[in-house]
TrEMBL record:
Swiss-Prot/TrEMBL keywords: Kinase, Membrane, Phosphoprotein, Transferase, Transmembrane, Transmembrane helix, Two-component regulatory system
PANTHER family: SENSOR HISTIDINE KINASE TRCS, SENSOR HISTIDINE KINASE YKOH
Catalyses which reaction(s): ATP + protein L-histidine = ADP + protein N-phospho-L-histidine
Source organism per UniProt: Kangiella profundi
PROSITE patterns associated with the record: HAMP (PS50885), HIS_KIN (PS50109)
Subcellular location: Membrane
GO MF annotation, one: phosphorelay sensor kinase activity
Top-level taxon of origin: Bacteria
Enzyme class label: transferase
UniProt protein name: histidine kinase
Gene Ontology CC, one term: plasma membrane
Upper taxonomic lineage: Bacteria, Pseudomonadati, Pseudomonadota, Gammaproteobacteria, Kangiellales
Gene3D superfamilies hit by this protein: 1.10.287.130, 6.10.340.10, Histidine kinase-like ATPase, C-terminal domain (3.30.565.10)
Length: 428
């Protein structure tokens, strides 16, 4: 995982707490502010209704409308008598009961007889506490919101620390687990909660992985023994035969020398593959000449496959060398060329170099459609293939270990495979 892609859960939880508190503070401030406006307007409406009830009773008793008892209220018989700064709006919008005037004046209107008049008008501009003190209210609500955010940040940080610390400890403990000590228990250090369940699941996964590793180690050890024993017998037999060279013809001695070379190559291959499976394979800094390895592989494969029907086109520069040991490159090319000769049904195989890139191309049938996207996976092979589906998987893993870029291009007729070492090649 790239270092710049790491995001701490602790900081995320704290940020969410801050955002939540900010949203709540804004919502709380807005609700409080608008509630104050509503309360203030409701108070003036209540006063108007009380005064209107008094005036109406007086009118019913005397037949005349009395003057309002409070000095900020006036009684008008028609809208045309309204104060000049609200008269036009009141006539244009007859159902409007609140109208702002000039010079910070503000009017509340209560009509009698369902808009037929008269009209009780209260000028309350000097009595509007909320509007006059709104800047102070903003400051007060802002300070309260800031305190809420600070408190929420502190709570979020403490809660995230308590919640994430066990998970961080588990992640650190898992990252420090040695491949040689996968059975080290984790769950015993954590409480019976979700993190404890995760630690238990990791313990079970580590235990299964340890059993798999143990079985693989037994297999590689047994395979090493079972493969080396017959090779040793064959090698000793060929050495004894070679000592009696006067009893064999030159053709027979040539076959014996081929058997000896094949045994030596097989021993090296087994050693390399076993070291690779045990992750003990080391990359040497020696250089390998590509043309020499290609020619050696073709000579060896010519003894196995009938190459007379295949047109070989080799154009590898003699001065191109890779900073990689010869043996793994030999295995890579043996697998790739064996596929071209045996499974591709090709009539032409071309091998050439382009700078430090080695390209192998054939005009065979290519890969089956069902495995084109998974050709380098273990046991991946077409329905008509008589192979085991291991060769290309081994090639891909060797390339990954040796820092070689492997590219497989599926063409209309055949396949092109490119090998490019990431490290710079040596050209002399």
């Amino acid at each position: 995982m790239p270092a710049n892609s790491f995001h701490s859960l602790k900081s995320k939880i704290a940020k969410h707490f801050v955002l939540l508190s900010l949203m709540l503070s804004i919502t709380f401030s807005a609700v409080v502010f608008f509630t104050l406006f509503i309360i203030e307007d409701s108070y003036f409406e209540l006063r108007l209704e009380e005064e209107a009830a008094f005036l109406h009773k007086s009118y019913e008793r005397t037949g005349e409308w009395p003057e309002p008892r409070v000095n900020y209220m006036e009684l008008f018989q028609t809208r045309t008598e309204f104060p000049e700064d609200i008269r036009a709006i009141a006539i244009e919008e007859p159902f409007r009961i609140e109208i702002p005037g000039e010079d910070n004046r503000y009017y509340h209107i209560l009509p009698f007889n369902q808009q037929a008049g008269p009209y009780l008008v209260a000028e309350v501009g000097s009595l509007l506490i909320v509007r006059a003190k709104r800047e102070s209210f903003f400051w007060l609500l802002g300070i309260i919101s800031l305190l809420m955010i600070l408190i929420a940040s502190l709570i979020g940080w403490r809660l995230s620390k308590r919640a994430i610390s066990p998970l961080s400890d588990l992640a650190q403990q898992v990252s420090s687990v040695s491949p040689d000590n996968l059975t080290q228990p984790l769950a015993s250090n954590y409480p019976s909660n979700e993190i404890g369940l995760l630690a238990t699941a990791l313990d079970e996964a580590h235990a299964r992985l340890a059993r798999f590793v143990e079985r693989e180690q037994h297999f590689t050890r047994d395979a090493s023994h079972e493969l080396r024993t017959p090779l040793t017998i064959i090698k000793n037999a060929t050495e004894l035969l070679a000592q009696k060279n006067n009893q064999f013809s030159s053709q027979q001695l040539l076959l014996i020398s081929r058997i000896e070379a094949a045994c030596h190559q097989m021993e090296q291959t087994i050693t390399l593959l076993l070291a690779f499976s045990r992750e003990q394979m080391k990359s040497n800094q020696s250089s390998a000449n590509l043309l020499a390895i290609v020619e050696k592989v073709i000579v060896q494969l010519a003894e196995v496959y009938n190459l007379e029907s295949i047109e070989l086109d080799i154009d590898v520069a003699a001065n191109v060398e890779w900073n990689i040991d010869t043996l793994p490159i030999h295995i890579l090319l043996t697998n790739l060329l064996s596929n071209a000769f045996q499974h591709a049904n090709a009539t032409k195989v071309s091998i050439w170099s382009d700078g430090n890139c080695l390209i192998i191309e054939d005009n065979g049938v290519g890969f089956s459609p069902e495995i084109k996207g998974s050709a380098t996976q273990v046991l991946s092979k077409g329905e008509k293939s008589d192979g085991y589906g291991i060769g290309l998987s081994l090639v891909a893993r060797l390339c990954e270990h040796l820092n070689i870029q492997l590219t497989i291009e599926h063409q209309d007729c055949g396949t092109r495979i490119s090998l490019i070492p990431v490290r710079k090649s040596i050209t002399e």
